[in-house]
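The records we work with from here on pair a chain with its fold. These numbers are not coordinates but entries in a learned vocabulary of local backbone shapes. To see the layout at work, look at the sequence and tokens printed below.

. . .
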Amino acid sequence: VPRLKKGRNGVRGESGVSDDDLALEVLSHYSSTSESASVIEEGTGEVVDEQTAQEETEDKLKQCIDNLMDKSAKTRLAALESLHLGFSSRVLYEFLLERRFTISDCLERSLKKGGGEEQATAATVCALLCVQLGGGVEGEEGFKMLRPILSSILIDSCASLPARQSCARALGMCCYVSASDDAEDLLKSIGHLESVFVGSYPLGDGTLPSVKAGIPALHSAALQSWALLCTLCPASRINTILNHHMPRLHTCLESSEVNFRIAVGETIALLCELGRDIDQEFEYEDCDALCDSLKNLATDGNKHRAKNDRRKQRSIFREVLHYIENEDFTEEKIQFGIEAIYIDGWIRRRIYDAFKEVLESGVRHHLQFNPLLRDIFGLGPPLILDASVKASRISRTERHLFNSAAFKARTKLRNKVRDKRADVM
């Protein structure tokens, strides 16, 4: 029978297989480097031992780390891009553990003295480093060192927009991973992100401000990272957020930028879900007007907008509208190997999307082997197959019972954690 566990924020994961598939018993292991399986080297057809491939990757990364200290900006940027690729595609905890201070120093130097492109790439590598080191002491050390410079670039109106956008995403991810139990760092990060996206909030006369090109993308990144960190806040803080931000976000649905409108719509749905987790009877006070706005966006046929933009907008806002009106959410299944996680709420979607934005195509590999992601998504230790154990089946009815139990336990667990954080705050 598959194991169903609740991770951080009640994210449900499954260490098993889909309906009518075979569910294999598994043995735990704690590092992808311990696998003895072989892989086919692309383009050659030669069989390469996984351990050998890992060692070759680490040798290349050592050179990249050395190149981070080069005087040439071009060399440093190339090294950062290689680290970006390496950190996203493999789990490298043991390798990075003894090099974390050197890497953090180099990243801080690139953020302080590099150009816009170098700063943007360095910020992304900061987020990946936190994901690699996890939420323990090592990750916290790195975050405390890098948080001030990430925040400084984020709120600096003279910094390049790509760098600020990358810092917004990195600050949200690093704080989510490394400072979820530190109320002070959490509140500071939330405040810095908030100070950025409120630039799109309505003016005193109720109209939306005009913003220059590139700013809506920055505001979207800041808003999405802010929403991610809201999932860590205690109930008292959530109530304050709902009262202050919901009316203003409602007005932002009129923004002329489609991607910002979508980010706002998803954030509204997430905040409503947080409100309903605290109080099942929660309802936004101007719900009828909000639903009217959502209906207009869900059926928008404005020819001035690109066809793909209209299609994407209608799809997202139909989902948001159904959730606000009926608490309906279309569950999404993310399959990797014989395992899967289920995205069945706006909170879980934001958490998964945040990791996907940072890890890109490597997100499934990290779901399989990274203990941090497996803990957050309730999957338990990384798995290897034991082919000698007989396969067993799980019925749809059994799965439904497991899923229902996990859903009911989610709210109790989250509110319990929030109460503890409220005491600190």
Remarks:
- DSSP finds 17 helices and eight strands in the chain.
